[in-house]
Amino acid sequence: MVPLQNITVLGSTGSIGVSTLDVMRRHPDRYCAFALTANSRMEELFQQVMTFQPRYAVMRDEDLAEALRNRLLQAGSDTEVLAGVEGLVTVAEHPEVHQVMAAIVGAAGLIPTMAAVKAGKRILLANKESLVMSGHLFMSAVKESGAELLPIDSEHNAIFQCMPLDFAGGLTQKGVSKILLTGSGGPFRTLPLEQFASVTPDQACAHPNWDMGRKISVDSATMMNKGLEFIEACWLFSASTQQVQVVVHPQSVIHSMVQYVDGSVLAQMGNPDMRTPIAYGLGWPQRQVSGVEPLDLIKVAQLDFQAPDEARFPCLRLAREAMEAGGTASVVLNAVNEVMVDAFLNGRAKFTEIPAVIETVLGRSPLVDAVDIDTILRADETARLLAREQLNQ
Ligand code: NAD
Ligand code: MG
Question: Has this prediction a pTM greater than 0.90?
Answer without folding.
Answer: yes
